[in-house]
Amino acid sequence: MRAILIVLTMIFINTTARAQTFKEWFRQKKTQKKYLIEQIAQLKIYLELTKKGYKIAKEGLTAIGDLKRGEFKLHKNYFDSLKVVNPKITSLPKIKWISAYNGEVRNVCSTCLSKNGLSDYLSGDELAYLQAVFDRLGADCDKIQVTLKEVTSDGNLAMSDDERIKRIEALYQQTLSNLTFSKAFCSESGVLAAARMKEKEDVITGRALRGIN
Predict the structure, then answer these.
(1) CA-CA distance, 211 to 204, in Å (whole number)?
(2) Residues 99, 47: one domain?
(3) Deepest in the core among 2, 83, 102, 188, taking most CB within 10 A?
């Protein structure tokens, strides 16, 4: 009888333990299922937020691109407008004076060597030096004319009216300086040639007075 009681007790204990084990297993499964459902819900929210974030970022980048393009267009229009020359600029008297004075510089350079018999009283090296100086002056006159045309023509330089006026004034002063220098240089060359011519005449006169041929 005691043995039967022990066996029954053990069966009861084993059955109770097994029932508790199954109960705990179902409880864990239920907990895991609940956890998985919560994870899926959170993942869904995350995906929705990510999608909204991408949309906002894309719209933001598009807006930035539009702003940049609009700003670029404004800048382009502004600089394009600076390439259009104000008619008041092209009518400035100094523009004509620059061209006229450049022509005068070229005339001085081209005629100086033939005046006052320079080629007869200056050495070959001196004449070559004079020619090199006049060539540089002529090249500078050409450069001034090219720059003047760029400053006073549409579509070349993006400049304000004040900047164009200042550039024209600088070209005018440079032209005056070239003209002044060319005249002074030619005059000094003429003085040197005249002095040598006088010296040669004095030698000839002195020989004649002394009866030397």
Answers:
(1) 10
(2) no
(3) 102
| Packing angle, helices 124-151 and 93-112, rounded to 10 | 160
Percent with pLDDT over 90 in the chain: 30
| Residue at a domain's end among 32, 52, 82 | 82
Instruction: Indicate the DSSP class of residue 210.
Output: T
Please give the tally of structural domains in the chain.
Answer: 2
* Region of 212 on the Ramachandran plot (φ > 0 left; ψ -120 to 50 alpha; else beta): beta
Measured CA to CA, the distance from residue 147 to residue 171 in angstroms comes to 8
- What torsion do the CA atoms of 201, 203, 204, 206 make, to the nearest 10 degrees? 120
Cβ neighbours for 202, distance < 8 A, ≥ 6 positions apart: none
Residues 102 and 55 in one domain: no
Judge if 23 and 95 occupy the same domain.
no
Cα 184 to Cα 177: distance, rounded to the nearest angstrom: 11
Residues 48-92 pLDDT 10s: 666 666 666 666 556 565 555 655 555 556 556 677 888 898 999
Domain with 78 in it? 1-82
Residue 141 and residue 171 in contact, taking contact as beta carbons nearer than 8 Å:
no
